[in-house]
């Protein structure tokens, strides 16, 4: 099957068969999805996944079909993997299991993914904010000194959303080794980055690594994310999870994506090439400060006096959706843009240039 798919890709059918715009005709560069996964390839795998399941039946409980394929690919045991309805479900489970009693607290390293605070507060816990360093790196000292009696969980997102920075490995491991707390390392974007701790995390008693099929593998609409870690820790989360939260098509698709990993690696390389291209283009815009990224998006700061909200609105009027991050700590007037196809990246740069110039005249 892989050979046939490679043949199809060689025929470049994907490019001709599908537009890179959304159904509403918009350029989606706001949610860190991956449009560089060839649509024809992905649809072919989906057709195969659908053939393999009978949707009249409930899915394999606790997502075991997907979980066993993931475990095998990472070289860990099956009970060291937990699959969820997106990694969002796993964040929700972590908050419910470890943060729901009165007074329990989680540390978040801001600026970061906002859902850690969301799930913690829904569960009834509190969050304590620690800031990154000025160049968006992680300071183990700042985290370690913020730990209090009620701190139960430390959320670390690396590569971090929205800065794109993958934290220094030794600093992350220092937090794991010296904190004495559960560390949740969210590696949603790690497939675009230099290193991952998912292969070695099971040796720690207090480290959970989260990964997802939504980003590098272009499966955001199917909802499949997972967590790797020590079996004793995962047992708590598994016990709190509903049995059928991961649907059968998603489970088969996970299996197929893993079987076709080599093809996806080519898509990931394309994202990295486009990321370099987009970064270089952004750096050429006068007054724009663009940050290096280890993910499939880029954060940039607008020239002084130009407001991120207004620029994002103007881009939206041009049909291009990006994310205003100017309201987050340390990110005044910053915007996050998802790396897309060359065609979309060019549209975005043109529209941004125009928006900055118009805003500069005000
Ligand atoms: C850092 C981070 N973690 C987790 C998620 C959620 O991913 P999923 O689609 O697997 O729920 C996202 C999605 O944007 C994210 O940016």
TrEMBL record:
<comment type="similarity">
    <text>Belongs to the class-II pyridoxal-phosphate-dependent aminotransferase family. Histidinol-phosphate aminotransferase subfamily.</text>
</comment>
<keyword id="KW-0663">Pyridoxal phosphate</keyword>
<dbReference type="Pfam" id="PF00155">
    <property type="entry name" value="Aminotran_1_2"/>
</dbReference>
<dbReference type="InterPro" id="IPR015421">
    <property type="entry name" value="PyrdxlP-dep_Trfase_major"/>
</dbReference>
<dbReference type="InterPro" id="IPR001917">
    <property type="entry name" value="Aminotrans_II_pyridoxalP_BS"/>
</dbReference>
<dbReference type="GO" id="GO:0004400">
    <property type="term" value="F:histidinol-phosphate transaminase activity"/>
</dbReference>
<dbReference type="InterPro" id="IPR015422">
    <property type="entry name" value="PyrdxlP-dep_Trfase_small"/>
</dbReference>
<keyword id="KW-0808">Transferase</keyword>
<keyword id="KW-0028">Amino-acid biosynthesis</keyword>
<dbReference type="GO" id="GO:0030170">
    <property type="term" value="F:pyridoxal phosphate binding"/>
</dbReference>
<dbReference type="InterPro" id="IPR015424">
    <property type="entry name" value="PyrdxlP-dep_Trfase"/>
</dbReference>
<dbReference type="GO" id="GO:0000105">
    <property type="term" value="P:L-histidine biosynthetic process"/>
</dbReference>
<dbReference type="InterPro" id="IPR005861">
    <property type="entry name" value="HisP_aminotrans"/>
</dbReference>
<protein>
    <recommendedName>
        <fullName>histidinol-phosphate transaminase</fullName>
        <ecNumber>2.6.1.9</ecNumber>
    </recommendedName>
</protein>
<keyword id="KW-0368">Histidine biosynthesis</keyword>
<feature type="domain" description="Aminotransferase class I/classII large">
    <location>
        <begin position="51"/>
        <end position="351"/>
    </location>
</feature>
<dbReference type="InterPro" id="IPR050106">
    <property type="entry name" value="HistidinolP_aminotransfase"/>
</dbReference>
<keyword id="KW-0032">Aminotransferase</keyword>
<dbReference type="InterPro" id="IPR004839">
    <property type="entry name" value="Aminotransferase_I/II_large"/>
</dbReference>
<comment type="pathway">
    <text>Amino-acid biosynthesis; L-histidine biosynthesis; L-histidine from 5-phospho-alpha-D-ribose 1-diphosphate: step 7/9.</text>
</comment>
């Amino acid at each position: 099957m892989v050979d046939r798919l490679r043949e199809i890709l060689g025929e470049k059918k994907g490019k001709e068969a599908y537009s890179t715009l959304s159904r509403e005709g918009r350029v989606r560069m706001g949610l860190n999805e991956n449009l560089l996964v060839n649509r024809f390839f992905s649809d072919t795998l989906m057709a195969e996944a659908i053939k393999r399941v009978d949707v009249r039946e409930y899915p394999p409980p606790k997502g075991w079909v997907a979980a066993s394929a993931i475990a095998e690919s990472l070289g860990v045991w099956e009970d060291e993997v937990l699959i969820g309805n997106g990694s969002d479900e796993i964040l929700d489970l972590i908050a419910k299991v470890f943060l729901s009693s009165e007074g329990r607290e989680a540390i978040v390293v801001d600026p970061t993914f906002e859902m850690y605070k969301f799930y913690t507060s829904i569960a009834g816990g509190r969050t304590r904010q620690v800031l990154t360093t000025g160049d968006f790196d992680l300071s183990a000292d700042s985290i370690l000194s913020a730990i209090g009696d009620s701190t139960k969980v430390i959320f670390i997102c690396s590569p971090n959303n929205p800065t794109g920075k993958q934290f220094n490995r030794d600093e992350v491991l220092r937090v794991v080794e010296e904190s004495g707390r559960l560390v949740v390392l969210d590696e949603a974007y790690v497939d675009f980055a230099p290193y991952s701790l998912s292969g070695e995390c099971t040796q720690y008693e207090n480290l959970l690594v989260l990964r997802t099929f939504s980003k590098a593998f272009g499966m955001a609409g199917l909802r499949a994310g997972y967590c790797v870690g020590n079996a004793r820790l995962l047992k708590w989360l598994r016990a709190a999870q509903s049995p059928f939260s991961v649907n059968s098509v998603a489970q088969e698709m996970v299996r197929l994506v893993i079987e076709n990993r080599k093809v996806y690696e080519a898509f990931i390389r394309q994202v990295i090439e486009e990321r370099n291209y987009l970064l270089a283009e952004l750096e050429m815009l006068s007054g724009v400060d663009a940050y290096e990224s280890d993910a499939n998006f880029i954060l940039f700061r607008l020239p002084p006096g130009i407001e991120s909200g207004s620029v994002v609105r103007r881009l939206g009027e041009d049909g291009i959706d990006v994310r205003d991050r100017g309201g987050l700590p340390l990110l005044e007037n910053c915007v996050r843009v998802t790396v897309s196809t060359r065609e979309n990246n060019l549209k975005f740069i043109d529209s941004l240039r125009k928006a900055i110039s118009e805003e500069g005249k005000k």
